[in-house]
Here is the input.
Amino acid sequence: MAATSAVAIRRARHADVGVIVAMLADDPLGSGRERLEDPLPPCYFGRSRCSTAIRISSSCRGGRERHRYRCLQLCILPGLSSQGASRALIEDVRVASHCRSRGIGEQLVQWAVAQARAKECKLVELLTHQTRVDAQRFYARLGFAASHVGMTLRF
Amino acid sequence: MAATSAVAIRRARHADVGVIVAMLADDPLGSGRERLEDPLPPCYFGRSRCSTAIRISSSCRGGRERHRYRCLQLCILPGLSSQGASRALIEDVRVASHCRSRGIGEQLVQWAVAQARAKECKLVELLTHQTRVDAQRFYARLGFAASHVGMTLRF
Here is the structure.
C-alpha cells in the first residue's frame, strides 16, 4: 500500500549520519563500499560530508513503531546549456529495507522532482548502475528516460 | 597531432558566454536546444548561469591565429556514500568545431580528472547521450567505464 500522507523531508543532520550510512551499506553495491562500524569511522564526518544536499525523512507508524527512513542527495546545478537552465542531479536514493515496496521511495523521488521544478530546472538526471534493473524500471515509471550512458571513473 | 602544451584553464566569465553558447549550439543535440542570437537572450545571463563550475580555455596558435576554445562544467559534490567520498560530475564538454581531433578535448577532461583527484574525489561521473557513440569511445579511452544507465526527465 502506498504511503500517501505527507511526511516532512528535511536536511540531514550530523545525528542522521548513522542511519544514512546503514541504508547505504544495506545494498548489494554499497555493502562492499561502506564501513558500517560502531562507532562510525571519521571519514563519514569530515568536511561537509553531510551537506545540505542530503535529505532524509523518517516517520514512525503502526503498532511496532519502527521508523521508516529514506534518504537521497539532491543537487541543483546552474549551467549555461539548454538556454541557461539549471539541472537537478539525484544520487544515493535509499529506503530502509524493512519498509521498501510501500511507495515511500517514489514519494521521495517525486518530492525531489517537485523541488527541481520549483527551482526552475529543465532537467533532472541520475545515474543508476547497470545491474539495478529494478531501479531503472522504477525511474521509468516516474517518467525518466534511459536516454544516456552513465560513465564513471573510480580512483 | 595532440596539443600537449599546457594551456591555462580558467573560470568562465561573463564575456565568455557568447563563445560557450556558440559551442553548445554547434552540436547535433545542442542545435535544437540553444538560442544563438545576436545579442544573446537574457536567459544566458541570469542568476549564476555562468557559475564557477564552468571552465574555459582558449589558445591562439598558428599562422591563422584562430582561437582554440574548449569548455566544460565541473562540479565537485560532497557526499556520504563510498565512505564519505566527494564525487566529480563533468558536463557539457565542448571543443570549437574548427579545432576538434587535436587532443585538446582530452587535455581538458584529463585536467578535470586531475582536479577531482586533487580534491580527493573517489569518483568522476558523467552522462553522455546514447547517440554520442564517439564520445563514449573517447571517455572509455580515458579510463571511464560505461557502468551506469543515465536517466533523465526533461520538463
Notes: Chain B touches chain A through 64 residues (CB under 8 Å).
